[in-house]
Design goal:
Blueprint: E1 5-10, H1 16-29, E2 34-38, H2 44-55, H3 60-84, E3 88-92, H4 95-105, H5 110-121, E4 128-133, H6 136-146, H7 158-174, E5 179-183, H8 188-202
Parallel strand pairs: 1-3, 1-4, 2-3, 4-5
This protein binds thymidine-5'-phosphate.
Thymidine-5'-phosphate (TMP) binds at residues 12, 38-40, 67, 92-93, 97-98, 101-102, 153.
């Protein structure tokens, strides 16, 4: 039986990576074989592209094309084979991030992203997408507290992140069956409980 594909989304600083690790462990505790991965990245070539994307200034359309180039590899080398073998794949970001960041944040036309999406993945979509939602000012404070050097995206303005957040919320509104919003300001215990409830519905 084909495995399930779960993606985690949200603005930088929303705490998605912590929940990614927890969710992977939770699925394993349910007896699932789980592959944890991320975008951009997830394959040797994808990780090289990630390094470029997060550091090199580039044209907006170059950025979108590289995201989909890395995604094409990711689908071909990791996501589709794992799902076919019955494994569950949990990816820290996928195509909703391109709609939110390159579309909402940077203003790339939705039609252009939709063309690339159709080309690279046809009708393939995650079975479940979890959007960790947090007000931009709180997310920026959390990011600053990590003390890590910010990458090219993390250096963006709060207005940019407001647009990214709005784009995620609009997508969740348009596709309520696939995309669930998690209030990332809630306590860890509360978020875990919510995640457990949602995951049980797709098991
Ligand atoms: P991460 O920090 O969550 O690992 O993601 C790296 C950055 O890449 C993050 O700031 C969001 C950005 N990104 C896009 O702009 N578009 C995309 O399609 C993806 C997958 C990530």
């Amino acid at each position: 039986m084909r495995g399930k594909f779960i993606t985690l989304e949200g603005i930088d600083g929303a705490g998605k990576s912590t929940h990614h690790a927890w969710l992977t462990g939770f699925l394993k505790s349910l007896g699932k074989e789980v592959v944890a991965t991320r975008e951009p990245g997830g394959t040797p070539l994808g990780e090289k592209l990630r390094t470029l994307i997060l550091s090199e200034p580039m044209h907006l359309e170059t950025e979108a094309l590289l995201m989909f180039a890395a995604r094409r590899e990711h689908l071909d080398k990791l996501i589709i084979p794992a799902l076919t073998e019955g494994k569950w794949v949990v990816s820290d970001r996928f195509t909703d991030a391109t709609h939110a960041y390159q579309g909402g944040g940077r203003g790339l036309k939705h039609e252009k992203i939709a063309i690339l999406e159709k080309w690279v993945q046809e009708s393939f979509q995650p079975d479940l997408t979890l959007v960790f939602d947090l007000p931009t000012n709180i997310a920026c404070e959390r990011l600053a507290r990590t003390g890590n050097a910010p990458d090219r995206f993390e250096r963006e303005t709060s207005e940019f992140f407001d647009r990214v957040r709005d784009a995620y919320l609009q997508r969740a509104n348009a596709e309520p069956h696939r995309i669930k919003i998690i209030d990332a300001a809630d306590s860890m215990d509360c978020i875990k409980k919510k995640l457990e409830e949602i995951i049980i519905t797709i098991c």
